[in-house]
Amino acid sequence: MHTLITCANSAKAYALKNNLPGEQVIMGDFEALPEFLVNSGKMIRIPNPSETSYVHQVLTLCLDRNINKICPLQVQEQVFLVNSAHLFAEYGISIVVNDQIQ
What we know:
Layout: E1 2-5, H1 11-18, E2 24-29, H2 35-40, E3 43-45, H3 54-65, E4 67-71, H4 75-83, H5 85-89, E5 94-95
Parallel strand pairs: 1-2, 1-4, 2-3, 4-5
């Protein structure tokens, strides 16, 4: 199983990744990412939270990539995902926000 950390271009995302030793972490962002990192599989493009089907797109991404935990670092992502946490929980996916991140 994998953990998805959003805002992959941010220092906060890398700090969080370093605080999760032993976990298989996938870094993702809806902002522009360096193509070579996407092609190498080190980062993925995730849906933009401004899209109307954002929650369902993220759920599909999680199911396709075997992601069981999401750490959304952008506020709009957090709002949508926390409000849909029950849907994700039905598939064994947890949403971890700022106050829960160690």
